[in-house]
Amino acid sequence: MAIKTSKKDPKNMDELVEQFEDSLVPFKQGDTIEVVVRSASTRKILADVAGLATGIIPEQEFSFDTSELKEGDKVNVFVLSAENDDGYVILSHKRANREALWQTLEDKSKSGEIMTVKVAGANRGGLLVEAGGIDGFIPVSQLSSQHYPRVQSGSSSEIARRLQEMVGQMLKVKVLSVDKNANKLIFSEKMTQGLLSETAAETVKIGDVLEGIVTGIVPFAFLAITITVNNFAASVVLGPILLLLLYPRVKRWGLVWTDIMAKEDVAKGFAKTIGSILMIVGAIGGLIVGVLVA
Fold it and tell me: In 3D, which of 65, 56, 165, 58 has the Cα closest to residue 113?
């Protein structure tokens, strides 16, 4: 005579674990467990899970140092699923490593150690990167000469387009700034390239002649025009305001130029008008020549 049971027969590992819990398998979804690496590649890590199953860490669940794992290494992982359609336990290294990762990033920031990050996105300001499950950012100014988007027109859309082409690439970087509380992580790629080592820097003295390589040329014309126009605009806008604020006080102190100069030296009539005209023409002419030369 068959004995009826209120529980249905489990159809997969998830249901088996849910039904028998710790009496069957010493892990379940959501646990952080230690596993032993059986094989490692750039796409996935296979691991022995408690001698009972084979686990897999897919590339999207890699942490910043997962690529350094090798056969026989023991590592803590987070159980995403007790079993997928192929019978593997799905594991995540980055979720188990997240808290420890912040401390590691702070240590790398102090030591200047180089690490690898993956470009996940881009905007005109720089690259969005992923470091072991933590999002970071590389400003355009911190890109190496090889990846710096040199756009003659300065078009922000063209800069963003060129940066977008780098999505998916792996970059060698150094930690520039890390703030766990603000969830802020800034990297620099250029700090890893073309810089003197500390030992070499100590041997350089003022007056030494060194050989270098030109890695890029940035046009100065736009900056020169901007400075010229900015200075002119500041004098035109702020000049009258400062005159209204300061003239009464300067006049009261007797420091106006007409009060200081001898009366016979102060221009009168037509000569005074010509002087004012020449001063205005000189200012406008200086602006025009500055822009043309730039």
Answer: 65
Angle formed at CA 77 by CA 75 and CA 80, multiple of 5 degrees: 160
Q: What does the alpha-carbon distance between residue 130 and residue 59 come to, in Å, rounded to a whole number? A: 12
Q: In whole angstroms, give the CA distance from residue 221 to residue 179.
A: 38
Smallest CA-to-CA distance from 234 within 242, 245, 222 is with: 242
Instruction: Give 183-196 pLDDT, tens digit per residue.
Output: 889 999 988 875 54
Other Cβ atoms less than 10 A from the Cβ of 204: the count is 10
- Confidence check: pLDDT of 7 > 80: no
Q: Which residue, 76, 78, 88, 92, is CA-closest to 35?
A: 76
Q: Which of 112, 137, 111 is nearest to 126 (CA)?
A: 137
Question: Residue 275 carries which side chain, given as an amino acid letter?
Answer: G
Q: What is the pTM of this model?
A: 0.45
pLDDT attached to residue 198: 47
pLDDT of residue 278: 81
Among all chains, which residue has been given the structure tokens 């470091």?
Answer: 131
Burial level of 46, CB count in 10 A (0-12/13-18/19+)?
middle
pLDDT of residue 183: 85
Single out the residue of 141, 145, 150, 292 nearest to residue 221, CA to CA. 292
- What sign does the dihedral 268-269-274-279 (CA atoms) show? positive
What pLDDT digit, counting tens, does each position of 256-275 carry? 777 777 777 776 777 777 87
Q: Indicate if the pLDDT at residue 219 is higher than 60.
A: no
> Residue for token digits 């963003």?
160
| DSSP 3-state of 240 | helix
Structure tokens of 107?
Answer: 């240590």
Instruction: Please give the Cα distance from 3 to 21 (Å, whole number).
Output: 22
Q: What dihedral do alpha carbons 137, 141, 146, 150 form, nearest 10°? A: 120
Q: Is the pLDDT of residue 288 over 80?
A: no
CA 84/CA 12 separation, integer angstroms: 9
